[in-house]
# Entry
Amino acid sequence: MAIGLLGRKVGMTQIFDEAGNVVPVTVIQAGPCHVLQLRTKERDGYEAVQIGYQDLPRRLASRSTRGHVAKLDSKRARARAKAGVEPVPKPDCEPQRFVREMRVPVEGVEVGQQLDVSQFAEVKRVDVVGTTKGRGTAGVMVRHNYSGQRASHGVKKVHRHPGSIGQSAFPSRVQKGRRMAGRYGAERSTMRNLVLVSVDTENNLLLVRGAVPGPNGGYLMIKETNKL
# Structure
């Protein structure tokens, strides 16, 4: 199974397949990603590969972020070395803007290794994880697709209101789970089982059929689907 990649949403376009049909696709700039750390069952209780995407200028990175990817001299490091504690392998790369873990086996993966879109060459379908666009505080028609009230005579300035939200006599309260206005969007969302239409290894691009969460430029996680 492919480890997965991190990337950014470029935007949507359309291409033509071999039969001449129009295929709507989302263009994703994926990788190259650095392997920053390996999680093992012996030390962490689970297996995962931690990867990072897009270099972060060192002047903007905290010391802990820089120390995560490169060896820094410190009093604690010297004390641990004196005590005989073996240091954790470092990828020796620039600090990364976007860091996530992929729950995949770590066998055959090394810290500092670079991952690119070539690992998706034989993959047919992928899952894409992103953060949806934030809509702020939204009414019930936007947030829950309510149809609203009638736009006729007698409906006075409540055309977009939710209407009744409960019973008066019994149980004399608003029941739990009632869909109402409130904050909408800016949530983690996963689009499952998307067809991977094309892989451009030269420009590190993935073309997937359909839409993916988030705005243009938003960060994404792309991994091989497990729904097949």
